[in-house]
Write a structure and sequence with these properties.
The protein has 208 residues and is of the alpha/beta class. The chain has helices at residues 45-53, 98-106, 113-122, 138-151, 168-183, and strands at 8-17, 20-29, 34-38, 60-65, 68-69, 83-86, 156-160, 187-192, 201-203, 206-207.
Amino acid sequence: MLEQAAALEVDQLVVQRGSTRIGPVTLKIGCGSRLALTGPTGAGKSSVLLAVAGLLPIRSGSVVIDGKSMTGGSSIEPWQRGISWLGQERGLWPHLTVEAQCLLVGGSTGKNRDQVRTLAVDLDIADLIDRRPGQLSGGEAQRAELLRAVCSPGSLLLLDEPFSAQNEAGRGLMKQLLDRECEQGKSLLLALHDTQEEIESVQIQSEI
């Protein structure tokens, strides 16, 4: 039996941001698994996520998503990588309702309308999905952005400090949803300032 390709493999990845060198970083995430990048503010966790997503050039090393190389001569654009993104800066489109955004990113192979509404109930934003982002609080917007991310058909979720705007209840709802998504085959790479979760982690190092 052929071994299933890992969801994400990063080997000796080095990212340069200004005078700061981040890495080398090596990690592997299996399908349906999760991994956290940890470290203090400024360590480079977000930079690693951006590099994996193709939104930041890498200095050296390789990124392989679902068995396909994303670097070198076969570099693949961010929208072609089969990923979903939730960043620290709110990224909801201001002119569309939450539901419209979820259906747009879902396309023909992502979550359908009934699934979107069910997930919105799970995140306690069912009464908000007909609103635009400007009508949401910070915590509501963050949960709405997670909803949009999981509605994408992409199998790899990149989440940068995904619980930063949540109280304990909101954090619990988001974690339960992510648990179910992993059970259904999605894989997670998270950047967390600190974690007490029972989750494998990689400590990110940087130097000037």
